[in-house]
User: What shape does this take?
Amino acid sequence: MKLVLYQPQNGYCYNSDTHFLYYFICENLKKFKNIQGEILDIGSGSGILGLLLTRDYSRLNLNQCELQKEFQELSLKNAQTNGLSAHLYRGNFLELTFDKEFDMCVSNPPFYHGNVIKSENENLKIARYNDSMPLEAFIKKTNEILNQNGKFFFCYDVKQINDIMLLLNRYKFNIESMQFIYPKRDKDATLVLVYARKNSKSLTKILSPLIVFDNENFTLEVQRIYSKTQTHSIKVEI
Assistant: This one.
């Protein structure tokens, strides 16, 4: 089923990071049978990540958490448009009190470091920069709301890999799988995809690198990812 997604005309729109994270999650879930339970999409934006996963794993109960009112309405609209159910928590993830524990948390969080030059668009600032959700607070809160063997999937700026590993360990997460994303073969990695599990003892698996472009074209692997996601974007004024 193709996912139809309304997005803001002049605000933050989902990008390839979310497509790559979705595919990474699917690859890591292959070893589990009967994927089910409560899933929380942290900072859900227009809802793409959680909606893709619940489209493909019908026994997951989707919960979304979103701070910005414009995106809250888009999340609800996109769930309804695609005939999918979702429970929306409105507000700042770090400040909310949740009425349940979750089996899985997924997120494409704001991860650009706060000391870089920021966009003047307030919508873009909140969606991109980690001032509103610092890495340690993000990991600590996720630990608090996951069940004892909960799964945690997210992507982040690869330059912060040292802090990612340190903080996951501090809050009792074990990294089970990682993948690095490279724009081209001769370029440095720009993004890391992380699968961590609470109270796990498994050894870490490093997946093959994902190369985005071959010259000016998407690589075959990236083409396969877009073929699997099957999304259609519609820009609207908000």
